[in-house]
Specification:
- 27% of the residues lie in helices and 32% in strands.
- By secondary structure, the protein is α+β, with helices and mostly antiparallel strands.
- It is elongated.
């Protein structure tokens, strides 16, 4: 694994060493790419980087496709197959093989409108039909599972109060409430492996109680490896805990986190669960 150094970009040397001599200039499958400058450039660039890594390490290389295709002044179906509108509310239907949640996240990130999944449709608010179609024609999208995972644990859509998300939040809060196995700390360093594997250096702000208090004390800086479920050598992004813990890849120095502490091995503790 490689360690980040001050004043270096988030596109770190690990990506080159992990990918070796592969040609990684092709567009990543599953990564969405705006042809115009995105508003949330830093966050989106990390998603694009993840898609590129997946493209160069995966044996499955599905091609990214535009959300819609503009032919002159007319929009033709792409990932989005049909649409209807009323003012600045547009309802979209997406292709059956596309993940609607990831498509909605892409639209929100790239177009400046707000998108959420409603039933088997996507409701987009904030742009007229013409404005939205023109914006979507500038965005490419594909179905790589890396993006689906990223969409899941980085989602900040306006439907974040849904009952499902509330249940997940409540479950995590319950686990973290057990202070005999949890701590609060600040990220001081990040070592990157193959996405989404990381080792996080954490300065303990609040240590656990009980037996763990003997080895994890306030003020100490310790290493934690977020737990990830694997299928063979492949990360299982269908696992909800893995989706949550993979968010460790997106952390930055100075971020405050809560960790449920697992077993330790060679001075590295397992982070059974990590949240911000």
């Amino acid at each position: 694994m490689e360690t980040t150094t001050p004043n270096t970009p988030r596109i770190h040397p690990t990506h080159q060493s992990t990918l070796g001599g592969n040609d990684c200039t092709a567009r990543a499958p599953g990564a969405h790419r705006a042809r115009t400058t995105p508003t949330a450039h830093g966050r989106l660039s990390r998603l694009l980087l993840v898609g590129t890594l997946a493209a160069c390490t995966s044996s499955s290389r599905a091609q990214a496709e535009p959300l819609v295709v503009m032919e002159g002044a007319n929009a033709k179906p792409g990932i989005v197959t049909s649409w209807s509108s009323s003012g600045k509310k547009v309802t979209l239907t997406v292709r059956k093989d596309a993940n609607a949640t990831a498509v909605a996240k892409t639209i929100t990130d790239e177009t400046g409108a707000k998108a959420k999944v409603t039933g088997d449709k996507i409701l987009v608010i904030g742009k007229t039909e013409e404005e939205l179609l023109n914006a979507m024609s500038q965005v490419d999208f594909g179905g790589d599972p890396t993006l689906l995972a990223a969409a899941s644990f980085k989602s900040d859509g306006f439907d974040s109060g849904s009952s499902l998300r509330a249940k997940k939040t409540a479950d995590m809060a319950k686990l973290m409430k057990d202070q005999s196995h949890s701590l609060k700390g600040k990220v001081t360093d990040i070592q990157y492996g193959k996405f989404p594997e990381t080792i996080l250096a954490i300065r303990v702000l609040r240590g656990p109680t009980g037996e763990l208090a003997k080895t994890i004390r306030k003020g100490a800086t310790l290493k934690f490896r977020p737990a990830l479920k694997k299928k063979g050598e492949i990360t299982d992004f269908t696992d909800e805990t893995t989706q949550q813990n993979a968010s460790g890849w997106y952390l930055e120095k100075g971020d405050t986190v809560e960790i449920r502490v697992g077993k330790s091995s060679q001075d590295v503790f397992e982070a059974e669960l990590i949240t911000r």
